[in-house]
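S.,

Sequence below, as promised.
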Amino acid sequence: MELSLSNSSSLRFPQNDFLSLHNCSRPGSFHTFSNKKLASKSISLWRPLIWRQHRLLRLKTQTATESNASGDKHGDDDFIVEDVPHLTDFLPDLPSYTNPLKKSQAYAIVKKTFVSPEDMVAKEIIVQKDSPRGIHFRRAGPREKVFFTPEEVRACIVTCGGLCPGINTVIREIVCGLKNMYGVDDVLGIQGGYSGFYSKNTLNLTTKVVNDIHKRGGTFLQTSRGGHDTKKIVDNIQDRGINQVYIIGGDGTQKGAAAIYKEVEKRGIKVAVAGIPKTIDNDIAVIDKSFGFDTAVEEAQRAINAAHVEAESVQNGVGIVKLMGRYSGFIAMLATLGNRDVDCCLIPESPFYLEGPGGLYEYVEQQLKENRHVLIVLAEGAGQEYVAQSMQAFQEKDASGNRLLLDVGLWLTQHIKDHFTNVRKMTTNMKYIGTSCFFGSCLGHMISSNIPNLSPLFELDGFQNRLKLCSTYSKESKVKTRTEGTLDDLEKLKNRSQ
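The prediction came back faster than expected:
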């Protein structure tokens, strides 16, 4: 298993180990424990949060022929492009126009940095000398030619699903980008998620309206789960004359965006649909970091510090902090690395076990004997298999179709207490802090909110050439990629990853 911490570094751990991050200030304290009780299975750090479609184009060009003639054993079949649907795929006679940025004095620098439609980004950054040319992706960014004029654009923005720090910043960037960069006057805000399309909850968004919304938490447009009726939504899009749809949300939201795209394509109407990935867990690809993630990691420090103070202030203190992370442990891991007081970090990607040599109970006892306290951080998705075994099957789902997770923090707190009381005959002082519902409503930290983030702007630029630009990742490559897909592929990828 590979845990990528950034674009330039990664930590590698054996599969089926549980990751124990000891206090990093102590020499030799960072290691893993072999999992002896769990059956071997493949574990991937990435989960398919958004739909994916392989539209592989093998570029047969003279360059490939020339490379073969020069002795290069990798021909044109080795150069593969995972492309995205284009407006002209079903509207072949669509006229193109000069990009408005070319006439703007404020963005004169852009004239020198337009992205060529032929620019590609390689999936693999590090390759061997004899490696195939491999899979490539279209580079995002502004093109010289676009397929909308500012006068014809009527855009709308909608936020769906759970809260995440920075949503208002994204809304503001889209509105300001459309109006100031592309000269678009008509931008609507759909209130209350997908259901807002057909309940007529709409705001007219101007730069004045959104001027200060990035200073607030939550979402200025309000949100909801579920409420997706594809035909009603597309009917409303047509009735209102909307031709650009920006959808901010997670995996369930993007699945809905895929359905909207399919209906748009079926009707043959000139409507661009873009999904802007929203996940506080940072488990979505293409982008270096999902908005709200830095805030979550920073806010987690408060909970970790509080639990540490509580644990070290008593005899045999055990502090447990549960952080967000349904399928990935990025928040827990990065918060642990940044804190340095955490003794053990449990994440969904790396299964753990409780009893026996090398188990969590043994490690906690060792730390209590050495330091008189122990601090554990765990992601909410870690150890769910144990909770399910000890409790009645829990299949309840939220309105988005996500299975509601059991509180592994409370479960672990009780089991550690029972083990040391009944088995080891030791008294422990437990302190549990659960923070899963707190981070989403936080105001995004200013360092994160004010550093320019090109993701919303790339979505704007992408509208000029593409029907949709939605982000996902490839389980096979375990690296972030820009791909597109269909609803049918989503379930296949989920089953394959599990």
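Residues 1-75, 446-455, 463-498 have pLDDT under 50 and may be disordered.

Coffee later?
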